[in-house]
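Need residues for this backbone.
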């Protein structure tokens, strides 16, 4: 069936739209009181992810509040390492942690590549449930972490400020790091293809920690594997092209090489100016971004001003998907998100048609 709202798909194909489409990274989350209520019912964060009905409910919540142009699957980027039996758990105020770490060639060799359909079936159940609930109103975005980003969590045992264990393995035993990234690239490809078969109409690869690498290391240990994933993805499903978005936080300096990855769009954080990015890539890819999430802590008028500035920076014509430069903060006032969305709807039509 045709989508009632296909703005995002058209923008990803750099086709004309009536206004700039918008969705938000982490749009279903702790800033919404209704999410916190369901999260409390679920028991734990992973229990919420594993319950298809509850994952569907929190996926739909932001679409009921705001006029968004896509839903994004409610899940976590660390589902693949969890399926590798590393013991994922969450500590309040500290984020994700693993009971086992991967810091040697022997530990890498011991890892099994999960079968997404079997070992991550709860994610596919959520995708199917959400697609049914959406009833073709807007497209559904599936996602995964990038191999490098997943590897950092697996090696560090959780979040990190300096990535010392990951970089020690990368520089000290590059063969072991490549073996790990190869397993993760195969896992991510299988995982995203399973999401596409289950009903995801767009997929995004989150390379949250690619920006901590040097330029040669980024190309060798991050972008190479993301390009391999893009090459292995199902690109046509249900008679429709399946677009791929690559997002490397702090990756603006590598924009041209990311644009050559085979992806349809490149996500940008707020440190790269859209006008510069558009000049650099031309019409090779669509661009997604890039409001600083912390702008949403300012007044509604300041939010409106920044939305207007970003739209003017990109300029007229297709190929822009409005988004935040990273995920919305849990401390954000939902009314300020409304001001952002309303400003976009008010200002963006003048840049189209």
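Answer:
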């Amino acid at each position: 069936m045709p989508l009632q709202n296909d703005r995002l798909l058209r923008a990803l194909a750099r086709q004309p739209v009536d206004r700039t489409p918008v969705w938000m990274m982490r749009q279903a989350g702790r800033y919404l009181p209704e999410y916190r209520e369901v999260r409390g019912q679920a028991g734990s964060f992973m229990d919420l992810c594993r319950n298809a009905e509850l994952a569907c409910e929190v996926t739909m919540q932001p679409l009921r509040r705001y006029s968004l142009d896509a839903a994004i699957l409610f899940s976590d980027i660390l589902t693949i390492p969890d399926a590798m039996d590393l013991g994922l758990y969450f500590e309040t105020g500290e984020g994700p942690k693993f009971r086992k770490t991967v810091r040697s060639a022997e530990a890498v060799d011991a890892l099994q590549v999960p079968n997404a359909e079997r070992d991550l079936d709860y994610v596919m159940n959520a995708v199917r449930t959400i697609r049914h609930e959406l009833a073709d109103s807007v497209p559904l975005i599936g996602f995964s972490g990038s191999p490098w980003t997943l590897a950092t969590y697996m090696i560090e045992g959780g979040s990190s400020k300096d990535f010392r264990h990951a970089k020690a393995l990368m520089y000290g035993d590059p063969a072991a790091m490549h073996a790990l990234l190869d397993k993760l690239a195969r896992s991510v490809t299988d995982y995203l293809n399973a999401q596409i078969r289950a009903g995801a109409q767009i997929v995004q690869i989150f390379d949250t920690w690619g920006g901590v690498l040097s330029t040669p290391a980024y190309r060798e240990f991050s972008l190479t594997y993301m390009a391999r994933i893009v090459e292995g993805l199902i690109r046509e499903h249900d008679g429709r092209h399946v677009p791929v978005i690559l997002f490397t936080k702090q990756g603006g300096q590598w924009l041209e090489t990311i644009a050559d990855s085979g992806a349809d769009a490149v996500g940008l954080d707020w440190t790269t100016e859209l006008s510069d990015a558009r000049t650099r890539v031309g019409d090779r890819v669509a661009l997604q971004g890039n409001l600083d999430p912390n702008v949403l802590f300012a007044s509604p008028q300041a939010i409106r001003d920044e939305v207007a500035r970003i739209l003017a920076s990109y300029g007229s014509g297709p190929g822009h998907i409005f988004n935040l430069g990273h995920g919305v903060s849990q401390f954000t006032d939902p009314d300020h998100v409304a001001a952002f969305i309303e400003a976009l709807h008010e200002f963006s039509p003048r840049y189209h048609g």
